[in-house]
């Protein structure tokens, strides 16, 4: 059997992986000015870097919002489109080794996908994600480069931005420790430093996403959440997520290839005929 290529096509960034014998092969990402350029640039680079010939490719699986711009087979190869939410679920299950989870896909916004055994379903989402962080940073920090925002935030003090239970109460409230956030940005001053604003923005986005995921599982017995997407690369995840885990007694998991889970899931959908795909 040849290699199956999974491609998550964004508007300006494309992620691509190969699946061979059930294993992920050399994931990469490529940026470009439009989805078509991004797709073909990523595909060519992937084949070149891994010394793969077109004849070695068994199938190409596309997903992501940018895949809507692709209407013909990639380089004449057999090409299908996979449902993005199914791809999220398959990729997260594969990378986490768990099959009873909520997948939290942190992209421009955030989508929530519930996996319970073989059943994968989109259960909602929120309009908070990387796009929110970029937009607010553009207004408040004069940059929309998330890596730059993260670096600035390394020297920030979030206690100067967020209001905690300890700031407004003499003792803990039922079920809430003194360190719990009562109000994001509730303690911010008009002369807050750039560093403090940066950590405040990141904290606001990550905590909103994490808590939304937990609230989405109320009424079920799911207590594990697999976090995927670009925002999982922020080092601040290691500060924001543990308090949520402790407060709600849950586990927020960031798998090894968290950034590429959707592309991985797209490739895996080729092998699993229970999930519908669209032939190009």
TrEMBL record:
Q: Name one GO molecular function term.
A: pantothenate kinase activity
Q: Which CDD domains match?
A: ASKHA_NBD_PanK-II_bac
Domain of life assignment: Bacteria
> What's the short name of a Pfam family annotated to this entry?
Fumble
Task: Indicate whether Hydrolase appears among the record's keywords.
Answer: no
Tell me the Gene Ontology biological-process terms attached to this UniProt entry.
coenzyme A biosynthetic process
GO annotation, cellular component aspect: cytosol
Q: Which UniProt keywords apply?
A: ATP-binding, Coenzyme A biosynthesis, Kinase, Nucleotide-binding, Transferase
| Classification via NCBIfam families | PRK13317.1 (NF009842)
Protein known as: Pantothenate kinase
Name the source organism.
Answer: Xylanibacter rarus
Organism phylogeny: Bacteria, Pseudomonadati, Bacteroidota, Bacteroidia, Bacteroidales
């Amino acid at each position: 059997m040849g290699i199956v290529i999974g491609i998550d096509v964004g508007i300006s960034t494309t992620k691509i992986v190969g699946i061979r014998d059930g294993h992920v092969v050399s994931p990469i990402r490529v940026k470009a000015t439009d989805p078509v350029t991004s797709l073909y640039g990523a595909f060519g680079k992937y084949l070149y870097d891994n010394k793969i010939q077109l004849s070695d490719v068994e199938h190409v699986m596309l997903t992501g919002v940018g895949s809507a711009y692709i209407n013909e087979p990639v380089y004449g190869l057999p090409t299908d489109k996979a449902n993005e939410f199914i791809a999220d679920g398959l990729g997260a299950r594969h990378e986490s080794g768990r099959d009873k989870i909520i997948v939290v896909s942190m992209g421009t916004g955030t989508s929530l996908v519930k996996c319970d055994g073989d059943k994968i379903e989109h259960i909602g989402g929120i309009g908070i994600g990387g796009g929110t962080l970029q937009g607010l940073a553009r207004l408040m920090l004069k940059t929309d480069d998330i890596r730059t925002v993260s670096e600035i935030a390394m020297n920030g003090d979030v206690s100067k931005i967020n209001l905690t239970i300890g700031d407004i109460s003499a003792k803990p409230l039922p079920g809430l420790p003194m360190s719990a956030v009562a109000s994001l940005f509730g303690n911010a001053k008009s002369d807050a430093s750039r560093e403090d604003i940066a950590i405040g923005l990141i904290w606001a986005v990550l905590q909103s996403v994490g808590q939304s995921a937990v609230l989405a599982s109320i009424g079920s017995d799911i207590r594990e959440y697999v976090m995927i997407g670009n925002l999982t690369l922020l080092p601040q995840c290691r500060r924001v997520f543990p308090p949520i885990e402790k407060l709600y007694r849950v586990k927020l998991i960031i798998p090894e290839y968290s950034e590429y889970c959707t592309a991985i899931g797209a490739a895996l959908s080729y092998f699993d005929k229970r999930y519908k795909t669209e032939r190009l």
